[in-house]
Amino acid sequence: MSSWLPIAADSGFGLANLPYGVDDNSVLVAVGDAVLDLTACARATGSPYADVVSRPSLDLLLAAGPSVWAAVRADIATWLTDPSYRPVVEPLLRARDDATLRLPFTVGDYVDFYASEQHATNLGRILRPGEPALRPNWHHLPVGYHGRSGTVVVAGTPVVRPHGQLGPGRFGPTTRLDVEVEVGFVVGAPSAQGTAVSVSAFASHVFGVCLVNDWSARDIQGWEYQPLGPFLGKSFATSVSPWIVPLAALSAARVPVGSAGRELATYLREDEPWGLDLTLELRRNGEVLSRPPYREMFWSPAQMLAHVTVNGASVRTGDLYASGTVSGADRSQWGSLIELYDNSEFLADGDDVVISATAPAADGTRLSFGDVRGVVKPAVTALQD
Ligand code: CA
Q1: How far is the CA of 112 from the centre of ligand 1 (A)?
Q2: Is residue 166 part of a domain?
Q3: How far is the CA of 113 from the centre of ligand 1 (A)?
Q4: What is the pLDDT of residue 384?
């Protein structure tokens, strides 16, 4: 399958990817160096799915469920490969660099997990020296917490250095602002309250994958987090990539996860638990700090969704859950500054942080995720004592 549109083999946005985003007017699909105005294209081709992409949001498409996701994706591929569509479709392409991308869906509930054994071990050592790095529950359930969905922002949104309590009697702007390199999963089809989503039903509910930067104020976090977990040290901002890569694009990226073969509660058992072979990259001011490997995570995306719902809690269209910081065995694979610099170096005002990722695509190329960029802005002085 090849397109009438010239697409460089190393573009990262070939026909095997086709991620979705939005600008102020339309749903967009990234292809090569271009974006296709999906809203206009569905209308122009008389697509039966024109309604679900008629607004500049993925919300209706997410809610439409897996059969519509597959049909829309197949139509897009046809439009971009069948030369008879070229006269209609080509005028609806624009340069990708010119697109002003917005938060692509209304974020429902947001959950952040802690699914990397290496990260959990590194953090345990730093935050609780002298104690076992992993708590007794860690290998038995995907540890997580409910975050703040209202402060999830799209890539490019500046992040203002937060204020908070930094310790007993100490208040002010954080001096330990950090990043966490994570992978996010976007729920499309909802589940009913009082039911649990089984590991095998994962693909019936989850639409796609994005990148996440879970900005963290380590001094606020360290003072507040016991006994109820992360709170204001996390809730000031969480950045997501502007493109949502559909699960259908990631079939060639599936790999086993660390929990495979373990003795687990029944609801967490998968016949073949799979994660994704994403290679992430963390850059600060243009310098590569690390390349965290998502393939080394312990808990799978399906296990995390099963755990979120095992008590009967429902998921809604637009719910987002993130993996937790991705860290591999080697220092060059650690996904946060607290790990990379052993709790001694953090972000300065003006720092420009970018998280990117690639993964194997079905056509033998590597597909790209949209970058998550964020620049640190100085603290708002009006909040100071
Ligand atoms: Ca996190």
Answers
A1: 6
A2: yes
A3: 7
A4: 55
Average pLDDT, consecutive stretches of 10 residues, N- to C-terminus, the chain (385 residues) = 93 98 98 98 98 98 98 98 98 97 98 98 94 96 98 98 96 98 98 98 98 98 94 98 98 95 95 94 98 97 98 98 98 98 97 98 96 97 62
Exactly one of 119, 163, 205, 307 is catalytic; which is it?
Answer: 119
The separation between the first and the last C-alpha atoms of the chain, rounded to the nearest angstrom, is 63
86 vs 96: CA distance, rounded Å: 18
Per the listing, tokens 């509930």 go with 109
SS3 call for 321: strand
Note the pLDDT of residue 382: 65
Beta-carbon neighbour count of residue 308 at 10 Å?
23
Question: What's the pLDDT at 240?
Answer: 98
Query: Both 61 and 127 in a single domain?
Result: no
What's the 208 CA to ligand 1 centre distance in angstroms? 19
C-beta of residue 57 within 8 angstroms of C-beta of residue 317: no
pLDDT of 201: 97
Burial class (CB in 10 A: 0-12, 13-18, 19+), 54: middle
Domain count of the fold of the chain = 2
Q: Distance, CA 1 to ligand 1 centroid (Å)? A: 39
Query: Does residue 140 have an active-site annotation?
Result: no
For residue 38, the enclosing domain spans: 20-98
Structure tokens at 313: 């809690």
Please report where in the chains the tokens 């105005």 appear, as a residue.
Answer: 37
pLDDT at res. 377: 98
Q: Identify the pLDDT of residue 273.
A: 87
Beta strands in 191-268 (DSSP E): 206-213, 216-217, 238-240, 245-246, 254-256
Q: What b/e sequence results for 6-36 when a residue is b if at least 16 CB atoms lie within 10 Å of its CB, and e otherwise?
A: ebeeebbbbbbbbbbbbbeebbbbbbbbbbb
Q: How far is the CA of 375 from the centre of ligand 1 (A)?
A: 18
Q: Kindly state whether residues 176 and 226 are assigned to the same domain.
A: yes
Q: CA–CA separation, 328 vs 205, rounded Å?
A: 28
Tokens of 170: 């100490």
* Domain termination site, one of 75, 98, 121: 98
Q: Are residues 372 and 267 in the same domain?
A: yes
